[in-house]
Amino acid sequence: MKTIEEKLQGYKQTMNQVQTPPELEGRLRDALQRVPTKKRKMNKAIAWISSAAAALILMVGVYEYPALAYYFNINLNTLSFAEVVEQGYGQSVDKSITLQDGTVVTIQGVIADDNVFRMYYTIDRPAGIAFTDDDFRRYGFENLKGFLTNSDSLGGGGGPGKNKSQFVGDHDFKPVSPFARTLTVTFTEWHNNGKKLSYPITFNFEANKAMKSIIKEDLSASIAVDKGTIHYDYITASPTSTIVKGHYELEEYPRFSGETKLYVNGTEVGKSRAGGRNPDFQLQFAAFPTDQIHSIELVLENFEGYHKINEPISLATPSDRSIRVGEEKLWIRSVTKTDTGYDIVIARNQFTFLEKDNLSIQAGGNVVPVSSISEERPWDLKNGNIMWEQTYSFHTADKPEFLLVDGYQYIKTYNKKISIPVANKK
After folding, report:
1. Is the pLDDT of residue 261 over 90?
2. What is the three-class DSSP state of 357?
């Protein structure tokens, strides 16, 4: 749960972090699968659940929010709720609760789409009592519940209101079901004695005032990378954000996901690093900046790469000069005799990692495996660049001649593009 102090820090961001919701049909199917099936005979309750769920699934194909004008040239992430209403969007709620000390929390209104549920609110301290740092730390929101809805908090932003006693904010949650008729959000307050008080706020939800996604497409596109394939499964572009979800088919989960850029009509909308849980990922971008969509493209700018090293690396003349190995540079900084053998100090770029399996040296005609590897430490080149070095220890009486390593992982430039069909888009 984010504190309001953290929300203030995030207020300058133009896009809240969001996650794409599961499909409603999938949720209903999952719910039906949880109904006991030991006997084919259903009691009345189970029969009602099955019939209702089946009806709702059928309704998914025909239910639509009322038509709304596309408003891409309006950035909802920068507007107050009053300004959102002026543009003709959102649902007014105006539901309040009063805390023990007289502080009033008011839900002004909400906006919903396929990517996020946004709630606008105010917190008014008693007249003449200004907000303090302690207030910012002790207030917050928990999840949002309703029919087919249990949406986690995604955080939010805010700032001072009409005076020092008021805070005006917005808070995002995972998307809610359009079939919910009432929603309950829980506001929390921490007291100095460590006790947390919870205040449920229930309000009517009018789905006919929510906003529908502009584009929701299956992609079935993929990009080959060094250790497998990145699959882009679908895109959801809503009035608040753009979400792309996909999955990895790689030999192993990547150390770093790289950057992907989104272009609309040839103009960069933004770039994103993938988040999620192996093997699934999602990319998060701002809302589309135009209502005339001619082209949508994703460009994988960089991603984890792997370079296989086929030749031994000479250790004959170590120095602080770099050695080009594939697309990266390595520094053999020193080869030093120790009481137990030899230590070799190797430096490389921060996100370049030598393969540890089968790492060894050739010394006296023998192949000697590495016995230990130190923690990495920075090496300042004094020219604006900082490398990272490690000490590799080997048990041998013979002076090392060559370093033997299978390869290295690194951030590789790909610049591979996929185009998203936009036929039949408004």
Report:
1. yes
2. coil
| CATH topology identical between 4-209 and 215-307+413-420 | yes
Residues 241 and 284 sit within 8 Å (Cβ to Cβ): yes
Half-sphere exposure of 78 (CA within 13 A, CB side): 8
Report how far residue 4's alpha carbon sits from residue 6's, in angstroms, rounded to the nearest whole number: 5
Contact 352, 410 (CB under 8 A): yes
The hierarchical CATH code for the domain 4-209 is 2.60.40.1640
- Tokens representing 255? 């150390």
Please provide the DSSP assignment of 186-234 as one string: EEEEE-TTS-EEEEEEEEE--GGGS---SEEEEEEEEEEETTEEEEEEE
Backbone angles phi, psi at 88, to 5 degrees: 90, 20
pLDDT in tens, 278-326: 789 999 998 887 778 889 999 999 999 999 999 999 998 877 678 899 9
Amino acid identity, position 216: K
Going through 78-152 in order, the beta strands assigned E by DSSP cover: 91-98, 104-112, 117-124, 139-146, 149-151
Among residues 375, 393, 404, which one has the least CA distance to residue 337?
Answer: 393
In this prediction, residue 241 has a pLDDT band, given cuts at 50, 70 and 90, of confident
From 202-211, 252-261, 382-391, the region with the lowest mean pLDDT: 202-211
- DSSP states of 362-387: EETTEEEE--EEPPPEEEE-SSS-EE
CATH class name, domain 215-307+413-420: mainly beta
Most distant CA pair in the chain, distance = 85
Position 236, amino acid = T
Q: Is 339 exposed, middle or buried (0-12, 13-18, 19+ CB in 10 A)?
A: exposed
What's the DSSP call for residue 135?
A: H
**Pick from 130, 118, 142: nearest CA to 190:** 142
